[in-house]
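quick one: iron/sulfur cluster bound model?
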Amino acid sequence: MIYDEITKTYPVSLPEEEPARQYAFMDILKAELADRMQRENRMFTMHVETFGCQMNAKDSEKLAGILSYIGYVPTDSEDADIVVYNTCTVRENANTRVYGRIGYLGRLKKSHPGMRIVLCGCMMQEEHVIEKIKKSYPFIDVIFGTHNIYMLAELLYRREQSTKCVIDVRKEADRIVEDLPSLQKYGFKAGVNIMYGCNNFCTYCIVPYVRGRERSRNPIDIVRETEMLTKNGVREVMLLGQNVNSYGKNLEPGMSFAELIREVSKVDGLQRIRFMTPHPKDLSDELIEEIAVNPKICKHVHLPLQSGSSRLLKLMNRHYTKKSFLALVDKIRERIPEVAITTDIIIGFPGETEEDFEDTLDVVRKARFMSAFTFIYSKRSGTPAAEMDGQVSEEICSERMKRLLDTVGEVASKEAERYTGRTETVLCEEYREDTGCVTGRLDNNLLVHFPGEKTLLGEMVSVKLSECKGFYYIGEQSSDL
Ligand code: SAH
Ligand code: SF4
Ligand code: F3S
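yep, here:
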């Protein structure tokens, strides 16, 4: 692994404990930036971009929080004083996108030499990526991975003391640092990390290698963060972890995910709780019961299938079969008839035959998913599947993808149609000036567009679901429920 390559020149009397130490660096940078703002008589801007999943997005909010504390103002433009790319490496195309965009940043920096470019996130945990960046993109200023994002201010400070790129990528997290600033993307909904890392090692997946081992956050910190968010206007939280069912296993005393979600639901003013992602292998009856009885928990379960073939599921190291997955779906539907079940599916895992693929289509039909994220298998070096025989050709993958999308489309629109004519509570999440329409999200994650005012953003309102358009509804605001 790569460690920083410069001599550390810290100011005297820096606190040793976190987060006090990071606040000290933020304060130094803040004072320096205030000076520069006065000298140059302008605002300094930041652009933080997320390339990955909800956890990556949550990290971006923390990074933006630190920069905002220092005094940078957010901008949509990449021609900013500081640009942060929070990268993802779950599939090859995520990497390709990042490389393309870094090239563009290099050209921007030529006409804006004071610009600082920071690369962080999952992709930076891979040694070959760091080698490539060092060789091909010498204009990068700071690089770190997933384990020390709390150190952004310290690393920026070190960059100012040096003439070289500062690289600090760690193999494992040494601690969970709480209470750093955060700048939320939305005022009314927010993600809350409940755990970091993953121990499952599904054979296709790189996440355990770049995010490290499972670590649960203390429930008191989770509840405290939820309370703080709710006080600031958040109505809905999404509890985030690679496998939320493993929550609490390394805590002393232990705590189950169902117990945690019950605790979080006691927060006053909080109206909705979502969570992502439960692994089908260990979704407990206790959790199903909690979703059924707790009115704050959304009746939506994202249950990643990956494949419907028991043979492939074994090769994927998923620890369930076609039969046990379908039995789980039946059990959830029996206890929570209103539930919407969504999923993730991978096409073209090594050795996938037509028969394996037919099994996947069969599960899609039987499980009646409300929607599915569908991916073509991407070979990740270092994972067991990358070494497996029978990599599936691109033509076969795209032909299967087309058939999968047709089947998902058919099943999903039938599922969505069940709600036609009903009046449901939605959280208003977006407003479009050109159409004068508000987009609201139902408890079950379906979207509905309806005529409304911008002032509705962040409000919970009743909407009649008039017309189903497949994946979404057209509706009208209603006064009755
Ligand atoms: N922890 C979550 C998923 C994280 S990654 C879970 O277990 O469900 C999100 C999704 O990306 C996965 O569900 C899987 O469908 C997909 N994925 C992961 N690795 C992939 C790969 N190598 N190729 C294609 N899709 C992949
Ligand atoms: Fe990857 Fe499997 Fe962990 Fe999900 S559970 S992050 S798919 S290894
Ligand atoms: Fe998420 Fe991508 Fe990392 S999916 S955990 S940002 S590899």
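Confidence is low (pLDDT under 50) at residues 1-7.
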